[in-house]
Amino acid sequence: MPDVLLNPHSASLQLLFYEGHQFPAEYRGDIFAAEHGSWNRSARAGYELIRVPRHGGDRATGEYEDFLTGFVLPNGQVWGRPVGVTEAADGSLLVSDDGSNSIWRVSYKER
Predict the structure, then answer these.
(1) Which residues contact 84 (CB under 8 A, 6 or more apart)?
(2) pLDDT-derived band of residue 34, with 50, 70 and 90 as boundaries?
(3) Cβ neighbours of residue 36 closer than 8 Å, sequence gap 6 or more
(4) What is the pLDDT of residues 38-71, one digit of tens each?
(5) What is the DSSP-derived secondary structure letter of residue 2?
(6) Ordered strands of the 12-17 beta sheet
(7) Which among 97, 43, 91, 88 is positioned nearest to 69, based on CA atoms?
């Protein structure tokens, strides 16, 4: 039995165990996954970066949350497809996207 069930055809291409200090402490040890998505489905799945919280434990507890979204327009057109995720020296996340040929920097700012 998998620890986390994802939508079919989400296509997780790269995982990262977050060890940085920019995001809140509860993110440390969590998993980030680049979901590339599938081009051959009428209902789009994937096309995002997800966070799998581990709540300080050794394993995931079954849930995940959308973290970086917006790569699919309301009309279904796709303009971005996350491929990889890595952690920068400052603790921000870098997400490669082969749909828009971009690298997105995701940083945390307290309100």
Answers:
(1) 13, 14, 34, 95, 96
(2) very high
(3) 10, 11, 12, 13, 46, 47, 81, 82, 83, 98
(4) 877 778 889 999 999 999 999 999 999 999 999 9
(5) -
(6) 12-17, 31-35, 48-52, 65-68
(7) 97
